[in-house]
From TrEMBL:
Keywords carried by this UniProt record: Signal
Record flagged with keyword Nucleus: no
UniProt cross-references to PANTHER family, sorted A to Z: CUPREDOXIN, SERINE-RICH PROTEIN, PUTATIVE-RELATED-RELATED
Protein name per Swiss-Prot or TrEMBL: Cupredoxin
Length: 293
């Protein structure tokens, strides 16, 4: 596999045999403001062609996987590594990773940031008619089914072909659920024949940030469930709500993460002393691990 991280406008020279036909370069945009996708999601390329992945906001990878395991790095497959791009970088230049196509066999790609793959952030070179099945497998959705915006779609485990009587074993079930109006993919253990879980009611937790002569969050801590939201209301003067870690409480998670994780950050919220309306910033709880602000 020929895969390189290249500076913008750089020219790649390879020792591989140059084909007699002029090779093409296929441009693919990775991510962007509020976007979890490769654009386009597929390309048809010939041996010797290149695929240039241009990385936009916020922090993504282009990582080779397999059709059988869409969200798992393939053995000896290429990987761009995490490439962070600041949210305020709207005009570039943007980093580029370039892959050289060696043959006409399909190449399956995903983003290994958090649960981006499980939300359908996958890509393929020369997939034929298999890309819909590849993306559906990444999202844990049975091929041919449709997702409802108001109900859960459960991908059941395959039937047990063993005719011997045995104690039911725990299987992993993938479900697409709707939380606060948005679809999320979750996995959980379940015994065959168990009823699907019922949706929990989410709560919003209000936290006041600052105020006249106040340099603290009120309350200073909360207990929240997955799907709950936390709304930070900013008072006087000028504060932020920025995710950090227990080990580095005064440095943003985005700066200290060794796995490419991007923490939330409200940015500075200036509020005048005589203000009567106050800005807010809301986050949604994705897990029950501690988040330090």
């Amino acid at each position: 596999m020929l895969f390189s991280i290249v500076p913008t406008l750089a020219i790649i020279l390879s020792s591989a045999v140059v084909p007699s036909v002029l090779a093409a370069d296929h441009q693919v945009i990775v991510g962007g403001p509020g976007v979890l996708q490769f654009n386009p999601s597929t390309v048809t390329a010939s041996p010797g062609d290149t695929v240039s992945f241009t990385f936009k906001q916020v922090n993504h990878t282009a990582t080779q996987s397999t059709f059988a395991n869409p969200c798992q790095m393939a053995d000896n497959g290429f990987d761009s590594g995490f490439i962070p791009v600041s949210a305020d970088n709207t005009n570039g230049p943007f980093p580029v990773a370039q892959f050289t196509v060696e043959d006409m066999n399909p190449v399956w790609v995903y983003c290994r940031q958090a649960n981006h793959c499980q939300q359908g952030m996958v890509f393929a070179i020369n997939p034929g008619d298999k890309f819909p099945a590849f993306q559906a497998a990444a999202m844990g959705v049975p091929v041919g089914s449709t997702l409802s915006g108001t109900s859960s779609s459960i991908a059941s485990a395959p039937p047990n072909t063993n005719t011997a009587t045995a104690t039911p074993s725990l299987v992993t079930v993938t479900a697409t659920v709707t939380i606060s109006g948005q679809q999320q993919v979750t996995t959980y253990g379940s015994y065959p024949g168990s009823a699907a879980p019922t949706a929990a009611v989410s709560s919003d937790h209000k936290v006041v940030v600052g105020g006249p002569n106040k340099l603290f969050f009120d309350p200073a801590n909360i207990t929240a469930q997955v799907g709950d939201t936390v709304t930070f209301q900013f008072m006087q003067k000028n504060h932020t709500s920025t995710q950090s870690t227990f080990a580095e409480p005064c440095i943003s998670l985005t700066q200290t993460s060794t796995s490419g994780q991007v923490g939330f950050d409200s940015g500075f919220m200036p509020v005048a002393d005589n203000a009567t309306t106050f800005p807010t910033f809301t986050i949604e709880i994705n897990d029950v691990l501690s988040e330090v602000d």
